[in-house]
Specification:
Length: 188
């Protein structure tokens, strides 16, 4: 199946998830995430800020900051297709980009990170071999190619995990995936 067609179908399904179910699933995923060994061992975490129908990471970010974790979030340069990880102390004082995604207003070079204990990456669809389809911009693939060897985790709803998704050699896969129904390890 074509990545773009699959991406469209999964996003459409996710966008129509009933809010009560989404809220329930978000809470279960949040609890699994904060109770996971990888979270407990991690001090420095780079995570995306959720928007729209994505699994909620804002609650996780606020919790992790209050749990004395160092939290970094993406600041993207869409023209040059680059992404930086910027340390934050709260979700206040953020900008909303053209796509509606929150990101830090400014890039303070002293707050740029590149070595993390854990990266929480977004995705649209995943398969049982650990493959991932993102949004098509390649930001995480390029970033992780430059910063290899980092522990990568993704969060998604169970229906985003398919038997197989198309994958290419340059696609970067998560090491683990947390859904409302399970935690999958590499080669899930």
């Amino acid at each position: 199946m074509d990545k773009n067609i699959l991406r469209k179908e999964i996003l459409e399904r996710r966008n129509y998830l009933e809010l009560d179910n989404k809220s329930k699933y978000d809470k279960v995923i949040f609890k699994k995430l904060i109770n996971s060994d990888i979270y407990k061992r991690s001090k420095k975490i780079f995570t995306y800020i959720s928007f729209g129908s994505e699994v909620d990471t804002k609650k996780f970010i606020n919790y992790a900051i209050s749990d004395n974790k160092d939290i970094y979030v993406p600041k993207t340069d869409k023209v040059n297709k680059e992404m930086l990880a910027i340390k934050i102390n709260s979700l206040n004082n953020m900008n909303v980009d053209k796509l509606g995604i929150l990101e830090p207003k400014h890039v303070d070079k002293s707050k740029i990170g590149d070595k993390f204990d854990l990266i929480i990456m977004p995705g649209v669809a995943f398969d049982k071999n650990g493959n991932r389809i993102g949004y098509g911009g390649g930001f995480y693939d390029r970033y992780l190619e430059m910063h290899g060897g980092l522990q990568k985790l993704a969060v998604a709803f169970t229906y985003q995990v398919l038997d197989e998704v198309p994958a290419e050699a340059f696609d970067i896969c998560p090491d683990a995936l947390v859904t409302e129904s399970a935690i999958y390890e590499k080669r899930f």
